[in-house]
Amino acid sequence: MSNFKEIKMKRLLYILGFIVLASGCADVLDIEDIEHYSPELVWGDENLASAYMANLYGMFGNWETGADRTSQQIAGIEWYPDRITMTNGAYQNWDYNRIRLINQAIIDVNEGTLPQQVKDNITGQALFMRAYAYFNMVMYHGGVPYIKVPQDRYEDDLFVPRNSTAECFDFLIEDLDQAITLLPEDISSSSSDFGRIDGSFAIAFKAKVLLYKASPQFNPSNPFDNAYWADAQAANKLAYETLLSRGYGLIDQYSQIALDEGNRETIFSVINSYPNKIAVWDHGVRPGSESRGPASATPTWEFIKEYPMLDGKLYNDPTSEYYMTDEEFLQNYWKNRDPRFDQSIVWNGKIYEVSNKAGKRQYTSLGIAHELDDFGINPNAGINSTNLDRYTGFFILKNSLLNLSQPEVQQYDVDYVLMRFAEVMLNYAETANETGDMTTAMNILKEIRERAGIVPGADGNYGIVATNREAMREAILAERNIEFAFEGKRFWDLRRLRMLDRLNGTTKHGVEAIAINDDGGEMSLATGRELATTYSLTEEDFKYQVLQVPRSGVQTSVLPDNYYFFPIQKAVLDRNNQLEQNVGWGGTFDPTLE
Amino acid sequence: MNSKLLNKLVSMGKYAFLGMVLQCFLLSTLLASESNGQSKIDEVFVAVHAAPAPLTEVFKQITNETDFQFSFRKQDIKGISYAHPTTSETVSVEVLLQGISKETNLKFKQVNNTIHVGLKEEVPGKEQVKAEVLITGTVIDENQMPIPGVTITVLGTSTGTVTDADGKYSIDAPDGSSLVFSFIGYTTQTIEIGSQSVIDVTLAEDTQSLDEIVIVGYGTQKKVNLTGAITPVKTDDINDIPATNLSNTLAGRAPGVNVTGTSGLSGASSSIRIRGSFGDPLYVIDGIVRDKEAFDALNSNEVDNLSFLKDAASASIYGSRAGNGVVLVTTKKGTEQKMTIGFQTSYSLYNPTQELLSDKTTATDELIYQNRVAEFLGTTPPNGPEEFAYFENRSYNVNDFIWRNPTSQNYILSVNGGNDKLTYYSMLSYLGEKGAYKSVDHAKFNLRSNVSAKITDRITLDLNIAATQQNHDRFYWPFSPDDDYDVSDLYRVSFNWPKVYPFYTEADGTPADYITDYPLQTPMGSWQAWSVIDQIVGDRYIAIKKRQVNSILSLNVDLGDLIEGLSTRVTGSYLAEDYMQKNYLTYQKNYVFTQADPDGNRFIPAAPDPNNYNIFNFSQNQEFLSYELNTAWSYQFNWFLNYNRTFKKHGINAMLVYEQAENGLFGAYSKAEDPVTHIDQDFVYSQDAQRRYGNGFEEIGARQSLIGRANYNYEEKYIAEFSFRYDGNTLFPEGKRWGFFPSVSAAWRIIAEDFMSGTTSWLDDLKLRVSYGTTGNDLNIANKKINPFSYVNTFRNNPDVRYIFGDELYTSIVPNATPNPNLTWATSTTYNAGVDFELIDTRLVGSIDAFYKQEVDILGSRLVTLPDNYGQDLAPENYAERSWKGGELALLWRDQTAGGKLKYSFYGNLGYARDQWDKLDQDPIFLPGGNRQFETQIGQPHERIFGLRSMGIVRTQEQLNELLEAGLKQFGRDPYLGGLYFEDVRGDGFAPGPDGKIDGNDVQLLSNNATPRINYGFGFDLDWNNFSLNAHFQGVGVYDRIISNQEGPGMRQHGGSIRPYYPIWADDVYTPENPNGKYPRPVGQNWYESGTNASSFWIKNGAYLRLKNLNLGYNIPKNFLSNLNIISAKVFFNGTNLFAISEVKEFQDPEQKNYDSFPLMRSFTLGLDVKF
Questions:
Q1: What pTM, to 2 d.p., does this model score?
Q2: Are B1055 and B272 in contact (CB under 8 A)?
Q3: How large is the ipTM?
Q4: B1056 neighbourhood in chain A, CB within 8 Å
Q5: Which residue, of A57, B214, B547, B1073, has the greatest Cβ tally within 10 A?
């Protein structure tokens, strides 16, 4: 019996052994790759090729509420001493990973099997992206190694030196010119391709590149009379006229430049759509009571003052119809301003119908406002505002989606407008002015101000008084400051024009509002609170005083001259001994065009 | 007849109505236990005669010579004679009556001083067929000294007894059976009864524990033949510890094994690191490669053996993944015995080892803090007498609503038994924990059934089935991972929440210390706060269920009929795992706090305004319900060929194994948003496709190996072992896939040499071991598994970029790193040398090991040859090298005293390990000549502390003036009174020499001992009568700990101008009035000089010593149990983390992860362990 069982068991064992040997021979280690695409697929399939390109589009960024902290527009001291060093990684633009992906696309798409038209379109986009990426690098650091072919790790010499800044510009323009020939001329906002780079964007961007090339940043010893201005003028004129002919132009309402998505002013935008792609704007600009937390970007008193009055002149311009002394202005700053002020800024007592709250007025007065909105040190409140280091008493209104309720502030999905026609116009105005065509410059400024709603005035000049090239230059710069408020352009304009001294040593301020009775005496906070709940307090029911912000820590901006070109990080230099450091940062490389 | 029973009954008879029962032959099972002292019946002696005498005469003699009387029916004893078998002059009445009973059909029963004589009843059943005999005797050692406490069992049964203080015993045993005599430290003897009724035994001291078996990779080995560094853990020591996870019981149990638990939250586990390695060791349970989670899921009671394989010679048999050592577990099997049922239950209470941070500050502290920051900022102090008076007896603490001291209950039921054909072990356990916060619960169920069947003499079959389920329930919280047991974010809000505002009020604004319909939004001054209380107890949760079922079937065939010593085994394991997670989120609505009187005390709440509220959305754009379901499977197949034979003096133990495993996983996630009402079921959620999301995922994997080992010994004196593993790994390309990892080791038992004969008086064992072993590894320099298919060019989705064209969201894809077609194994080589010794009659047992481990070809990305403009990451290459060195010491002293009544042992172990990089690409600035050479990794341990060197706090105006005059700027800021100031050593680009500016360039090396270099444990076991006491201490040394917040090193001042946030900012801080304060000044800023980030100011000696575990047990005496048919019962008390000594305690528990992570718990457990 036992013996019989044993024989049976042994047989079973032999069978098992056979099965195992048989299955073991089929190599279990040859598993399938279930989480990747194979490269052969990518450039033979239009969907995958599009997906490859979609990844690269990430380079165009999205809304950034604090973009203008670098200028006097937004509170916060970005330029504390030694903000930029060779080692801290700040203001480094060295994205060769993206360059490689772009270069790879240009080569691979043309080796693939897609239809020629698709190949051309992708090549055009990639060339534009390469120029765009290199332009930003050159704008930061001066000339960089202009790699055009993905390097082979084993075959190529990887230790490439920097191309001169001039060479880089040449390559850039070459790439853009080629891109313009390959890209579709124009993609309308109703197209399913809307959001892709088109010829119009490429032409406009090329014009901007040439503006930079001519600018003082790259030509310090001959800032405004160098030969590049003529090229810039030609390109900007072409861009302006071409786009105009393609239907681009200013829209009527300044307040709608972004909120009206895909309007005729938009040249290129990054499309947002909840829930697939959202951006941060309301979450960063709204007063804390209507958001998830405090605003991260608030306008300064300095910037408030820079808005013209309704007649286009500054409040302290004695020729202005609305001339005021500084003290008068402080108590009446909201009155008779350039309408863009009302469309861009929230102030204490202003009607601000956020979260669909009809008739709501926003308060910032300490003791009356919500603790996440308040700003001030009014001793009657018993405690200081906790926002003294980040607030100013003002908030950003521009581009805000007021209909989002408080828990929805993170659903912001307005398309991010990277370039709009107003910029093309002002770029053109600048090149025109520097090449002696003040009339064109003036006409463009007037057009911008007309749209803004500034009254034309008796002379029809919308308050612009510019009788020479320098004055016109200033007028254009001032117009850019207001027109592009919070769009992150101000610091770069000043840097391009070598005017960082205008930021160096500056401080920033906010304005505290304290509720007063009709007799001018301070109102009891209980009364103020009571009136505020029914939005019964208006701007007039407060008195105002200026407070420096931030209240603690570094309060003064420091911008040394070597910030006109940022350093190459030491770690980058260390990894490639062929790279030279910029002059001004202990190196020998001249990042200018001289 | 059993003397122990008799003794007990006699002693009871003196008091109780039960009297004394002499009931021979009827008891068939009795578990060994200690003898319980003398009693009357065997204190009374009578002289006996060798010649047969009628029983009437015998009784008469006893009656005359003692106080006892007999009561009997004459016919029962008529004609019966008795001759005592021994010739000793006197015997106890007990022995005499036992002798009579054995030879006759009589039984005796004592009631007070009367002995009743009756006839034995016939008991039906086979047990009666075999006659039982009474065996008595004495057990002595080689020095003729009696040994108390020796366990005597009848072979193959659970019948047993133990010797008394004089080494005497008596036991009933079936005729022809054998007795097994065993005692720790002595060789076990088995003696066939034969015709003897007195068996005196001399036990030989088992100086070498020659037959002790240790589990090793893919088998077992006699301890004497071990050549590697293996540390077994006594599982008995951990059975009473109420741990959620097995790893939590192991700290300090084995030298060179560092076990760290960083959180006391219910369900948290501990990390295990062997010999300073950075990765998890490999976990092997019943021969199957598993993971840490499976190891943690084990109940300590189902574990039979637990060993740490520390050197490569031991671990390399597991090849890949064994580079960080191996934790080897076998679970319990049935034993040939009558069915024994074990039941253990315990109840534990927990409380934090340190005062909860929330209890350290009050509303008043907050008022003071606000005033201090205002003073620093130069603004009016906001709080005056009115506020201080209001809060004199008032402070709002979140924990009053959400905290509970955790408790747990534990039940384990096991059944063990079998015969020579079939044995079984089954266990069912439940552990239920109620965690520290009211919504944190954890439950764990374990089931194991292990059955072995002997099919024929040569074939056995084992089936081992284990199942576990764990349920975790907790509050919803999106800001830390769902399995985060540090819950630092939640723990933080429990203490940093302002204490000056009520959490709930009545409709009229009266503060309530209970939950009402009016939760108030605490004014935070820095963001929209929520209700922490509702977060814990409100209508939202995360529920996780994890299940594992593992079945292992093994067939063992003895092929001794073909070749003697040959056997084969086939093992198949199938593992099924499920994971289910449900997240349910609803928003919170909180009323905005408004002041009743804005012109007066601002802390008095007004009645909540129904129109003024805030919705807290937990950063989720929609309310949602989500499910994640994963189901994973894997199998492992092993085919063993074993050869085990001894030829005279040559012993051979050889093995060849084929192993193959595959695994896979299916997973799916679904999320539904925007419910029509708040029910935690999917059907109430929006049917809009835009509000429903789902995705799925899969995993696959496989491995294949050939494993071999040969162990040879000559007279168990010279031992040599060779083993190898040939491993295939899917992470590497074909051709580079297979790695061969050999190991050799040898041992020399010096004690067995003739020339050592002179040392036998004090030296009992001495063995030298040396080993060399290699293992493979597929981890990169960060100890992460490399990505699959890194050897070919592939593209993947890039979740970081979402991009829309038109109105369509496009997938974005991106190539992976530049592939490396030469990808292959990293290899680590360990050299180990050790000594095992036993001294002074085996009282002192110890071992010492030293090791050097080198890992080469570690997978890392090359830097040196790659400028940035290359523009792509490289797949890792096999190039980096690192090494470890260290040693371990383990000592045990065991002895007994007071005639064996007090047994005690002391043990201690200590491990030291240090790692360093030998080859690693670094940026040139770190290389010799570079400005950051001081940071180079080469020759240095991986984890170090870098930061600014603090020069202390600026305490006086003179000091400040000096610094200001020198123009010192710290991160652009001027120094201030009460702030830290730092040593200026470098300028930009790390150029040497001070530059008057303190910034990142001034970072210095602050310590090389960022991880503990020394780990140790020690303790003692005491046994006295029925009491046992066990204490286990554990600690680390040579460790610099930098006090850290969850954001990183240093202490931050997150509270701005309104709250201390961390209690130390309300503690002994610098203020102008307290210039000698211990901590920097509260300024409400996260500045370096206010305490943020790494500086030497926050480095403390991280060494600690703690009483990890204390266990007091009491065995309930047998005489209380026997009538209940209970074999044994033990009550125990267990305490963990009872106290600790450490400099770090100034801030936190020495094991706690950060200052602001969830604290560790102290536990108190009362338990009962019964066998019947």
A1: 0.81
A2: no
A3: 0.92
A4: 386
A5: A57
